[in-house]
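Dear Dr. V.,

Thank you for agreeing to look over these. As mentioned in my earlier message, I'm a first-year student in the group and I'm still getting used to reading structure tokens, so any feedback on how I've presented them would be very welcome. I ran two proteins. I've put each sequence directly above its structure. The first is here:
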Amino acid sequence: MHRYALLPLAALLTACTTTPVPPPDPQQAWVEMFTRTGKLVMAERLDGQHLDDGRYFQFPPGSHELLVRYDYDVAQAVLAIMAQPYERLCYITLRYNNFEAGQRYRFEARNLGLQTFAFLYDAHGNTVATERQVNCLF
């Protein structure tokens, strides 16, 4: 009986933590975040302004600078067999001058060891920009 009493509470808590992403506005450019090698890719700023929801960028067409947070795990020592990984936090800056209204772009962050890379792809999968600056903390 007690199990069933907790179901509405669990549903309510889940609803509070998962706000849906709004539908794309055809008058805006849209950038989705993606990574295969990291734990987290989250939008932080657009043209120096803090964003309320870091899961996506949606903004007017034109020239813009994106600041994105990227977290990933790195082994502490290359030669240590039992080394525990630690989380590395990076801030990636990318600038693109030709965002178009109604277009979907994909921001992809990757790492290879301690090197961090970012790519901006258009809707056809073409690379249109790469990272301008990467600042990482340990």
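The second protein is here, in the same arrangement:
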Amino acid sequence: MKLPDKILNVVDMFAKIPGIGEKTALRNVLQLTKWSEKELETFANVLNELGTLQNCQECGTFADDSICGICNDVHRKKSQELCVVETITDCLAIERSGQYRGLYHILGGVLNPLLGVGPDELRLNKLAQRVKDLNVQSLVLAISPSVEGDATSSYIKGLLPEDVQVDRIGFGIPMGGNLDYLDSMTISKALENRRKM
């Protein structure tokens, strides 16, 4: 049975979203066919607004204005602490934890010469300027534990003045994790990041 093109076109668009296959896309679109015309119009308008979404000129996250709410927060600026992450989703994950109250800087990836990602493709010059302008005393590197992540972290450390304290977040065994099921790299990182009790 061939479905109308109006449905198939929307299914094709939904299937482009990571993690959504053709079957899930079809189920979602069939669900949308039950919505009223007003609900569909609102949905279309909200999706259309994504085209006008902008990034914060300071940290790089999504923002309604040129500067996001976190970068405008006076208390966070006073902390003189900056957390460097690869992606916006990393920033959101740290915010959800509720444990960090400083500013962020989103790189947009990690150094990877094989893929053509060098210092100019990341926001590294902006990072160095922000450290200076904000008088950052403490920088937290929340970058993934990989060869590229390690190289990026080392590069960043070399960009900064000596008086800036640079820490890398701990990596290792997740809560409730069992050693039997962990790979050797995770165990190695956990041993590297051990601390006194």
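From my reading of the second output: The chain has a mean pLDDT of 89. The longest helix spans residues 37-49. Does that match how you would interpret it?

Kind regards,
E.
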